[in-house]
Amino acid sequence: MTPVDMETLNLDPEAEEVDLNHFRIGKIEGFEVLKKVKTLCLRQNLIKQIENLELLVMLRELDLYDNQIQKIQNLEALTDLEVLDLSFNILRHIEGLDPLTKLKKLFFVNNKINKIENLSKLQHLHTLELGSNRIRVIENIETLMGLDSLFLGKNKITKIQNLDGLTNLTVLSMQSNRLTKIEGLQSLLNLRELYLSDNGIEVIEGLENNNKLTTLDIASNKIKKIENVSHLTELQEFWMNDNLVESWSDLDELKGAKTLETVYLERNPLQKDPQYRRKIMLALPSVRQIDATFVRF
Length: 297
Description:
By secondary structure, the protein is mainly β. It is 3% helix and 13% strand. It has a domain at 1-135: Ribonuclease Inhibitor (Leucine-rich repeat, LRR (right-handed beta-alpha superhelix)). The protein has one helix at residues 276-283; strands at 17-19, 39-41, 61-63, 83-85, 105-107, 127-129, 149-151, 171-173, 193-195, 215-217, 237-239, 262-264, 289-290, 293-294. Its main location: nucleus.
C-alpha cells in the first residue's frame, strides 16, 4: 500500500477531535496546525514512528492502534495526555512514559512486550491493558494505587503475585495464561470481576477476602469441585463451563448468592444428566440464564 500524500489531508486548525482512521498515513507530519486538538485518532495506518506531536499540548487522547510502531518515544511534551492506545503495534518495551503523569488509560494489546516496567510514575493510571503479549511475571505495578482495571490475558504468566498494593482494583483479567493456582488476591478487597478462564487451575481457593465479587470466570480449567465460594454472596455471574464437576451437591455452594443470574456449567460431567437444566433451576432459583440459553418460565 502506498502511503497517502499528507498534503491532500485538510486539517481544521479549530478541530478538537480529529479522526484519521484507515487513511494510509505513513508518517506523522503536518499536524502542527492542530493547536486545539484534544482527541487524535490515527488507527489502522502505516505509521512506523511516533514523532512531530510536541506542539499538540492540548492533547488528551492519542489513539495509534494498529500501526507499525516499534518504540514509544517523543511523547514527553504531551503532559495532559489521559488516554494512550498503542495496541496492535510491534512494541517490545514499555518506556518513555514518565512525563505523562496524567495518564488514566493505557492500552498495549497485542504487541511483543515481555516485561512490565517503567510505569511507576503514572500514579493516576486507572486502566492498564496488556493482553496478548509475552509477559511472564506480574511485577513493577505495586505502586499504582489508583489502578481499577488490570488486563493481562493471553500472556505466559505462571503465578498471581505482586498485587498487594492495588487495593482499589475492581477488575482483574488473566485468562489464557499458565496459572495453576488461585492465590495472591488477599489484599484485593474491592475486586468485583475476576477472569481466570483457560488456565491450568485445579482447585477453587484463595478468594476468602474477595467478598465483593460479582463475576467469577473459571471456565476451561481442571477443577473437579465447586468449593470455597459460599461467602461470595454478591455473585451474579458464575462461569465454570469446561471443567470436571460431577456432583450436584456442589451447587449448594452458590445458594447464598441470592442475585445469581447466570451460570455456565456446560461440558462438565454434570451436563450428561438428562435433568441438567431442571436441576440447576431447582437448586438456584434466581438464575435467569444457564449456559447460553435463557431460562423459560
